Amino acid sequence: MGKERRIVSQSERYSRWGYAFITPWVIGFLVFTFLPMVFSLYLSFTDYDTINAPRWVGFQNFIKMFTKAEMWHSLWITVKFGVIALPLGIITGFLLAYLLNMKVPAMKFWRTIFYLPAMISGVVVAMLWRGLFDDQYGMINFVLRTAGLRGPQWLLDPKYTLYCFLFLSVWGCGGGMVVYLSGLQSIPTALYEAAEIDGCSKFQQLTHITIPQMTPIFFFNLIMGLIGTFQYFAEPMVLTKGGPADSTMFYNLYLYKNAFQFRNMGYASALAWFLFAIVLLLTLLVFKSSELWVFYESEVKR
Amino acid sequence: MILLVFFLVIVNLFLWAFVISNNVGVMTKQRLARRRTIVAMIIIIAAALMILYPVVSMVGGSAASKQTSRNVPEVKPGDFFNVIKTMLKNLVPIEGKRIEIDQQYIDSAVASRSGAKNLRLETAPYSVYEMEIDGKKMHVAKIGKEGSQWIYLNEDDLNEVYLDIPASEEQRVKAVVFTWSNYPDALSKGDFGRYVINSMILVVINTIGALLSSTLVAYGFSRFKFKGRNWLFIVLLSTMMLPAQVSLIPSFIIYTKLGWYGTYLPLTVASFFAASAWNVFLMRQFFMGLPLELDEAAKIDGCGPIGILFKVIVPQSTAVMLTITLSTAVFWWNDYFYSLIYLQDQKLYPVALGLTSFDAKYFNNSGLKAAATVMMLVPPVVMFFFFQRFFIQGTVISGVKG
Predict the structure, then answer these.
(1) What CATH architecture does domain B183-401 belong to?
(2) CA distance B237 to B11
């Protein structure tokens, strides 16, 4: 009896230690995430310019947001960019990983090179490419001229600015590549050996073993990529500042401009909450649809 | 368009090696494998070149002097050899050649023109031109002007003095000139040195904060059972998916009201409260993998929970600690968004933000700007090169198992 009580009290003491250790995160979560979120929700129903006190305006910020062409425009640009850039990045990254996985010499060296764009700041990326996009002296147009084409004014013509950012994102696909590479290496070789015996070609092995085994990783990268697209900021800020003619006004940039340049804190909070809703919806959607195409080994065992 | 072409080429090569070749019965397996490796290598090298080109050309640009204009010549369609030549040329700074000349030669040249009026001397280093003098082509250095004519010295024999018509810019002798002084200049002239120090401060404080807080929190989540643990951990994980903008604006307002706007506090304080769920997750996964027996042994030896953490867990966790240190350091070295929002005084700017203001300030000196860019680019790349394993571990654990 006495012994039992001692055990209970010890586990209780231990649970107290547990709470003590996670306190920093609990405080951090409440102070830096949860309360600001609540405050932000309140702000989204007010008109606030940081100088005068917030003024309650009801749903006006949301009405303004959904009736304004600007918001839909920036949302459209972000979605368009994400829909093209993400699959392109995933395919290119996976292709590179697949090739690197073929026992090529000096893999570490190549891996460093491919991962380089993911290591450097968006500001540096923008700096690196700005000169190359120049319509007169830039290398890209120089190559195009040699091919007999007239290159556009990449960063000045609203029709072409988005292509520049697509270019940048494909250039930076190596970040995902590293993950795919280790994913590829973790696929059991027994599967390939069995397929070889059954007379599967390399291509059949790719479509029937490699890609199904990799889908959870693609799926995770897709979600993170979707969220990442809505946070895209440094490159457009440095390269184009959202211009010309708002053709690169990505959602995050639009939010930033409203909050910190025009000081429409209430409107910007509404934008942030709409963004939150979109990200949540997308994440749920991807999770739901994942049942259709994500392969988990455990499902087969069952 | 080009992207599409580039993509099609790659896909075609891929198909050639991996799909079509399977139907060719004549080929032996080894030949097939070799063919695949060759194609793989070709694509990998092409991709690597594409990735490296902007970086290397920036490094080349960082050694160019202010005067260099990196002109791209007009080309005829189809002249692809010229493209390759120009692309390679763009990687190294090619400028008009300049040489230093001993004062004694200058003096003797001046002495030989002692009667001349309007004699004006150039300052060193002297530009070299290719001129045709007395029917011979030779390289001569311009050392001064005499009226409407220029005074040249023969580069090969500095005792020969010539007086001739002004040479045109096209006659400049080209040479590879590295202006490495751009680097110290960027550090001293443009406040860039200060930006680097500022970034270091941010990196160090945030890394300490992230390490301390995530160790404690991960320890709490991995080694103790308490009510609501799993539920709290799910909350923690879901903050990973949360877009930062939702809490950004109120945080900004609160920090401003506290008088923290324009200081490093908004950029650093959150780190001490395990702001990065990713770090905690990574650390917890690692702690879960550590054997419990050592904990038990330490407990029997009379270690309390804190003792176990620092005597048993931490010494075993250097790998994950290094991963978190590196990723936090690189994040704060590269940070642009938060410093843009919270900092106002240029003296406090970290490198990323500093680079953009540097860029605006020295817009006409591309060499200096390139040097600054390279300095910002190099530290993360070098770190990655040396600590590859740890970086990849971090990315992979969250990417594969997440």
Answers:
(1) Orthogonal Bundle (1.10)
(2) 38
> Which residues from B are below 8 Å from A283, CB to CB?
241
Q: Does B335 touch chain A (CB under 8 A)?
A: yes
Residues in B touching A217 (Cβ below 8 Å): 399-400
- In DSSP terms, B153 is beta-bridged to B141, B161
Residues 6 or more apart whose Cβ sits within 8 Å of residue B263: B342, B348
Chain B residue with minimum CA distance to A178: B392
CATH number of the domain located at residue range(s) A66-301 in this protein: 1.10.3720.10
pLDDT tens string B261-275: 888 998 888 889 888
Is some CB atom of chain A closer than 8 A to the CB atom of B378? no
Predicted TM-score (pTM) of the model is 0.83
Name the residue ranges covered by the structural domains of chain B.
Answer: 2-93, 98-177, 183-401
Contact criterion met (CB below 8 Å) for B373 and B62 = yes
Is the Cβ pair A201, B395 closer than 8 Å? no
d(Cα B109, Cα B142) in Å, to the nearest integer? Answer: 11
Peptide bond into A244 cis (omega under 30): yes
ipTM reported for the complex, 2 dp: 0.85
Mean pLDDT computed over B111-126: 73
Task: Please name the member of A19, A29, A116 whose beta carbon is closest to the beta carbon of B239.
Answer: A29
Where do we find the tokens 């050996």? A193
Residues in chain B with CB shorter than 8 Å from the CB of A102 are: 36-37, 40
Name the band, by pLDDT with cuts 50, 70 and 90, for residue B329. very high
Q: How far apart are the first and last CA of chain A?
A: 44
Task: Please give the pLDDT value at position B205.
Answer: 95
Comparing A85-89, A202-206, B109-113, B395-399, the range with the smallest average pLDDT is B395-399
What's the angle, vertex CA B198, arms to CA B196 and CA B199, rounded to 5? 65
- Could you tell me the pLDDT band of residue A297, with boundaries at 50, 70 and 90? low
User: Cβ contacts of residue B67 below 8 Å, gap of 6+?
Assistant: B95
Among B226, B231, B269, B306, the strongest candidate for a mutation testing the A interface, having the largest count of A CBs within 10 A, is B226
Contact assignment for B336 to A31 by CB distance below 8 Å: no
CB of B8 less than 8 A from some CB of A: no
Question: What gap in Å lies between CA B233 and CA B223, rounded to an integer?
Answer: 13
Domain boundaries, chain A: 2-43, 66-301
pLDDT given for residue B215 in this prediction: 92
Q: How many CB atoms within 10 Å of residue A2?
A: 5
Cα gap A62→A41, rounded to integer Å = 12
Whole-number Å distance between alpha carbons of A91 and B74: 36
